[in-house]
Write a structure and sequence with these properties.
With 227 residues, this protein is an alpha+beta fold. The chain has one domain: archaeoglobus fulgidus dsm 4304 superfamily (archaeoglobus fulgidus dsm 4304 fold, 2-Layer Sandwich). It contains six helices and eight strands, in the order ααβββαβαββββαα. The chain has helices spanning 4-8, 13-24, 87-98, 123-131, 190-199, 208-217; strands at 38-47, 52-61, 67-76, 107-111, 135-139, 157-162, 165-171, 180-186. An eight-stranded mixed beta sheet has the order 3-2-1-4-5-8-7-6, with helices on both faces. A hairpin with a 2-residue loop joins β6 and β7. The longest helix is centred in the N-terminal third of the chain and has 12 residues, at 13-24. The mean pLDDT is 91.
Length: 227
């Protein structure tokens, strides 16, 4: 078994691909957790001028979707941008931000892919496996797979497929807006990933946890935060 630093600091793309293959063997798609109460929305942006990855996390309860805690972390980018290997750039910042929370939430909702990834190891899956913690990926765009466009009404959905394998759900989160790409990350079933995402939708395209994390990611470090 690789140590945690090796999971996050490959020397090159080939080594990163090998790490993803090893992690995939530990991936579990299926409900393996109690009913979640506290959920964390996670988003990562970049401070290009300073060469930093910027992770933002907002926690809230699933029942009322009221924000409880917000944290940010800035970590140097130690891995280049390579499509399909985003986790190696962003997870160090996410782990630094998670360490600032008072407690680890029951469920992690990540702005990005879960198993809807060429090697089934998007950032939500990668994070979920290394922490052995339930996680969901909510992507704004398709990384891989094929689908039929869902209907135009909020709640319309269609399967995201890789050949005969379903790797996600394409969800219309508001009437007549571009759909979201929902997929399990780890210890969550496809149906539950969709159900929880739908429970977190209010008036916006993005579910509240990742919407507020995305909003927080645009706040400069020296400015007042969201709440």
């Amino acid at each position: 078994m690789l140590s945690l630093p090796e999971f996050l600091t490959p020397a090159n793309a080939a080594e990163a691909h090998q790490i993803q293959r090893e992690l995939r063997a530990k991936l579990r798609v299926g409900d393996d957790f109690s009913a979640p109460n506290l959920i964390a929305g996670i988003d990562v942006g970049y401070d290009v001028q300073r060469g930093l990855a910027h992770a933002s996390i907002v926690t809230m309860t699933v029942d009322d979707l009221k924000p409880i805690e917000q944290v940010q972390a800035f970590v140097p980018e130690d891995f280049p941008y390579i499509p399909g290997l985003l986790a190696f750039r962003e997870i160090p910042a996410i782990l630094a931000a998670l360490a600032e929370l008072k407690s680890l939430p029951d469920l992690l909702m990540v702005d990005g892919q879960g198993i809807a990834h060429p090697r089934r190891m998007g950032i939500a899956a990668h994070l979920g496996v290394i922490l052995d913690h339930p996680a969901i990926g909510v992507g704004k765009s398709r990384l891989t797979g094929s689908f039929e466009m869902p209907g135009p009404a909020k709640g319309d959905s269609s399967p995201l497929m890789a050949g005969n394998e379903q790797i996600g759900v394409v969800l219309r989160s508001r009437d007549n807006v571009n759909p979201l790409f929902i997929s399990p990350g780890h210890r969550v079933s496809m149906a539950t990933a969709l159900e929880i995402t739908q429970r977190c939708l209010l008036r916006h395209r993005l579910p509240e946890p990742t919407r507020l994390a995305d909003k927080l990611s645009k706040v400069k470090q020296a400015e007042k935060l969201l709440f």
